Amino acid sequence: MATRANSVPHPTLVQVDPFISAHEQRGIHNRWHPDIPAFATVKPGQVFNIECVDWTGAQIGNNDCSDDVKNVDLTKIHNLSGPIAVEGAEPGDCLVVDILDVRPFDKMPWGYTGIFELENGGGLFAREFNSRAAKAIWDFHGVYATSRHIPGVRFAGVSHPGLIGTAPSAELLATWNKREGELVAANPNAVPPVAFLPNATGAYVGQELPNDVREKIYREGARTVPGREHGGNCDIKNLSRGSRCYFPVFVKGANLSVGDLHFSQGDVKISFCGAIEMAGIITFSTSIIKGGVEKFALKQPIFLPSPVDPLYSAKLVFEGISVDVHGDGKQYDMDATVAYKQAALNAITYLMKLGYTREQAYLLLSAAPVESHVGAIVDSPNACVTLALPLGIFEHDILPKEEGLTKKNFGQCAIRSDGVV
Amino acid sequence: MATRANSVPHPTLVQVDPFISAHEQRGIHNRWHPDIPAFATVKPGQVFNIECVDWTGAQIGNNDCSDDVKNVDLTKIHNLSGPIAVEGAEPGDCLVVDILDVRPFDKMPWGYTGIFELENGGGLFAREFNSRAAKAIWDFHGVYATSRHIPGVRFAGVSHPGLIGTAPSAELLATWNKREGELVAANPNAVPPVAFLPNATGAYVGQELPNDVREKIYREGARTVPGREHGGNCDIKNLSRGSRCYFPVFVKGANLSVGDLHFSQGDVKISFCGAIEMAGIITFSTSIIKGGVEKFALKQPIFLPSPVDPLYSAKLVFEGISVDVHGDGKQYDMDATVAYKQAALNAITYLMKLGYTREQAYLLLSAAPVESHVGAIVDSPNACVTLALPLGIFEHDILPKEEGLTKKNFGQCAIRSDGVV
Amino acid sequence: MATRANSVPHPTLVQVDPFISAHEQRGIHNRWHPDIPAFATVKPGQVFNIECVDWTGAQIGNNDCSDDVKNVDLTKIHNLSGPIAVEGAEPGDCLVVDILDVRPFDKMPWGYTGIFELENGGGLFAREFNSRAAKAIWDFHGVYATSRHIPGVRFAGVSHPGLIGTAPSAELLATWNKREGELVAANPNAVPPVAFLPNATGAYVGQELPNDVREKIYREGARTVPGREHGGNCDIKNLSRGSRCYFPVFVKGANLSVGDLHFSQGDVKISFCGAIEMAGIITFSTSIIKGGVEKFALKQPIFLPSPVDPLYSAKLVFEGISVDVHGDGKQYDMDATVAYKQAALNAITYLMKLGYTREQAYLLLSAAPVESHVGAIVDSPNACVTLALPLGIFEHDILPKEEGLTKKNFGQCAIRSDGVV
Amino acid sequence: MATRANSVPHPTLVQVDPFISAHEQRGIHNRWHPDIPAFATVKPGQVFNIECVDWTGAQIGNNDCSDDVKNVDLTKIHNLSGPIAVEGAEPGDCLVVDILDVRPFDKMPWGYTGIFELENGGGLFAREFNSRAAKAIWDFHGVYATSRHIPGVRFAGVSHPGLIGTAPSAELLATWNKREGELVAANPNAVPPVAFLPNATGAYVGQELPNDVREKIYREGARTVPGREHGGNCDIKNLSRGSRCYFPVFVKGANLSVGDLHFSQGDVKISFCGAIEMAGIITFSTSIIKGGVEKFALKQPIFLPSPVDPLYSAKLVFEGISVDVHGDGKQYDMDATVAYKQAALNAITYLMKLGYTREQAYLLLSAAPVESHVGAIVDSPNACVTLALPLGIFEHDILPKEEGLTKKNFGQCAIRSDGVV
């Protein structure tokens, strides 16, 4: 019939199996390095798909026990698909990337959010809470997610890549390694560590390479944990399907890599494995603006958010000021991180009044489309940060009432087999 | 005719003249202290107006020179109207405050945004920029503001009180003074100071009081600069007309005070006198939830934002990571304040490519309905903060273009009479 | 002090008293005619205020009886303030009007919505319901309205002029009178009448004029009920404060008139006196685009909505199709008016399940920020129209529940002294 | 690895091939009738997929000629997948349907919008324009659509089923056939016809059935063109992925059918094949509320819109009043259909000033996320309807400018091989 003609699917340039270990698959790498060759090349304007395993490379299971989170091998993260070279891109150009779609594999309609152990990953409250492994499994029902581990909520995901970036130049990589090395050197005994330095253990590149090249990459390659000047692990929920990003180009071809897909995440990614982590498919098209780094003063990526985000307009908002770290009651000097922690703690305490456990609340704030705004960082000595909990994600009324809040029993999320939380 | 019957205006409980020095007027105080008596009392449910002078108490003029900003007397800020007691409120209760409206005086349809001197007020970039006084005057045209000092922008204000809070108890006040005193003691030579401690100079209470009471208030009263557990100078743009706030009550009657009205402010209040400062009228109603502090775990206010905010959905977003303070290139450990500064600097640099001066850009980010979100504070060592510039506030297209950005001449904002910027 | 200098309020070009009959006041007219001289003249770019009485000119009172609605004199509506001439405007130009603000008088913080008698005004359901006079008084609390006659709702107003337009030319006026006369001639006995033709009774112009001129205006002047090519009584809620309108100019000076201010109205203005009617102040500025009628093919006004509308994103939506007028069960041919009626009836029936009376529901749909969208008018024979009831305006949960809807007692709105509804 | 366990995809209950004629495939029917047996049965709460061919059943091709539209066989539309029975549903119940996702087949990333011939389908302007076949092919790039036939626009789709409904009872079906038959009888020579009556030609049911049953269905089955009390072809863009619908149940099992998927449609579906028609996959879950028809007074479906719609807040709005049908200049009596046509014509004329052809403009209004609101239907004799064109879908500035509009050359959409438009 008429519809068959000219029905050409968009090509899939990296194909992966979300059920197989990432290091056994082609097209997946887990370090940033200029010497990782392009795995595929596209022309500007072409629409293409990239498949991604989840950020751990299939280490976390759909079950009711968090031992897999406890024992996760963090030398193997994050698993990135690519790099994809764009014809004509040169250092100093701006690579325009349209994130056209992000979705889970049909055969894996679930994801997870995890609290990591203090000694293996940590998280914003790892020290305050002396965190032990916990997790929530989320089931995907089309645009919605629900969790048997956090009953009473249901929300539309604002899907996006947690991690996307262009390859660094050798100079930029050296800068990263130097400055992060200095930070670690200044905090030698921090638990969790203040930064993750290059580490050959667990590294892979997803391609056949000469031994010396591969070993150089393993030895020097920047870890994927932080976001940096090239993008990387920014965990910005607004880099969602429908958004347009402007990346600085540091190497010929730009060499774009992507991974760590999220079905949903709010502003408040506070557990180390915040967001609803998933494996899935991302669709891109690209273009190049010659000399864009200079034209737009691109020190880091800039972007246009998508028009398609979920609209949860009614919210309950919590405030935090830069006073008190783990009960010390101290005044901190316009420290937005402390203020943010306080706002999150205030929200967690409120959710516990409704019957959620501390772990459930911690996971929920990381996974749901929560917003966090910086109010002001100028009213010495207090920074003020807000955290807005959308009312529409709850199946029950959570508003303050004359008679107080009704405490329900929501059970508990998945915890360790030894019962320690 | 028929309409005359039952036409009863809402009462105005504090009446001020925006053209007269605040300390000469009744009902205006500028310190937080439990012993300041209620200036007026309302019943729960009553709708009432409160008039406010601008935060400086008429020190800043509608002119083209910033000398008044340079010489502003900061011992006299912020000027608060009140306190207003609510019948029946007791410590431990929750005071529900509906912010029903906020608007300028008809006779003073303008406001201002200021960059303060490094040595007199400072601001987020006071040290980096070695700030000298500058300002922008904004003209109000109904819901819109424009400025002859920052041409090419026009936006709807999201009006709100910069400063609103209940009176502290003696215990809470003592806690504030102790913790802030310790911070100052630890940073004795900071310029600008890291906190503003009690200071009898410039203090007033707007009422006749016995000398010993007044002097105690002057001696002990907390300064108004930071937001604290009672609300205060939170500078949260979402506390706008139409919002409902839940304040903890610390003294009998709650003793609500308000001031520092803003015609508009974004999340990014980065200049010390960010926001569009105005004198005006705020309309409230209140109710009481007995024992609300315990019921809702109220460590700080919580609130429901208004449904009436301006909707500028299309935005250009800048990112910042916690690297580099004033060019040091250093890696900071998940410091959201540094990340926020970087996002703001990236936006300022971009605006300068369009032709705005650094001062204009600094003021614009403080005054316009800009959004700043915390992305993630968990991806060690980089916190990631975004700053979203709404496209709809510009009268010209500011998007990245293939051909680069067009640099226009927007002149300069109001600067000092000696020309120093 | 510094603030006094250059504090110049926007001028008020038409000043009225909302408690005095409209025909006794200067600057108020109630017919459209090219020969009504400009009451005031402005320059392009100038910001100015216009005061307006309510549309009936003070005929309706703040009380609990609808007899004033029953007996309202409709020859005296709508009361328009103006006309305002804009220097330089010529026929064929486009008059750009910025609606900068709309607000009630401080001394009259209330408004009303009315169901009119079948024989005196009517309304969309006048015949189906055999309408008798009823009304709801709304109290304004800043941006919010509530009504003692319709308990359980509270919403932010999206204030706008129900009626705004430029003066018609003699030719355009003749066209109106001809086509409307033909419609009346074809439906001579309709109750309520299908159109209101020129009628000297009750007419006034708000200015001293030679008798012959005044009498010509009275004799020929178009009634104000319908919207027409010049704007007029379009009752578009989106012409709200913050919007920019482009009007065709038909006479020298454009001669803009405005009145019938609404504190709030949804898309669904179904009672003849739908909307929350108020007296108040509107703020404008204008500019001229020469030859704009041709440039933009202006057959009627076009406009840019305001960014400041209330955001009630969660809604319950009712559908209507073009079947059934007053129980006849008949199929109508893609008739959007019938479909709209059905959607409104479905919503009214639903509200009655919640305990509202039919009159309360009818008034509420007219006054609240309800949305009505045309779905499709192409699927013969059914047009499909939707009506969306915002959940956030109700103080209780109105969603469909497994256990059905809870019927509360909300009393009744204001009805006639003889008790007939 | 860990992810393999418990990875169970949602089942697909109807599987189709979008490249094969609908009548050759199982599970596709194109009439409404109570005797069509359920094709599959689900339990309440189950998540499942349904695949759908495009509404014509593969009659329209991805090419640059509209002859396929000219010759389309309308006896074969609309192709519906199902019916799906829900265990436990009985007449009088309410079937709650969650539309969890709607997306095109990966292998068919395109869709189309068509103008149909006056004599074969028609459309809102079929008579005014004497419509000849034309079409636009849209390419899907993730959430976005673009068309080589309408250059200069790109927008995010708000995907939804154009047609979804429960099976009618025998009584309801008889009512439909009676009332529509009477309308046709009263307009015997209308071109296009005012309604489509039962017609055995082209009918099919997608299942093996006894001859007498099948023939009864063919003879009596209601055509799919209009929306009716059971839902059906409502073409409501807000029934989008993420929405929850409440359908009345008329037969045991409810027997839900769905088809006519749209990648995008605005409120303004004015061409007979408005919307961007596509083949694809829809994901559902269901639940039952016993006795819901009575509980909620369900005369027609009601629904909760999705939180995930595209947000295009800046718009240019056109008005229409109920004057003039095809140039007759006549006054119509509060006829919203006429007002809607006028608003659409005003928008089409404006788009032609920008360089689009009349056919391109007609197709664009049908396909893009345009909004159309009913302003008021009470201001006799004019109904007022608005049409809002989102600025963000255009790649160029379409706002009114001092200097007028810039007319570009956008070519033409796909037209007939004989060149007639």
TrEMBL record, chains A, B, C, D:
SUPFAM superfamilies according to UniProt: Acetamidase/Formamidase-like
Superkingdom in the source lineage: Eukaryota
Record-linked Gene3D superfamilies: Acetamidase/Formamidase-like domains
GO molecular function: hydrolase activity, acting on carbon-nitrogen (but not peptide) bonds, in linear amides
NCBIfam families from the UniProt entry: FormamaseFmdA
Protein's name in the database: Acetamidase/Formamidase
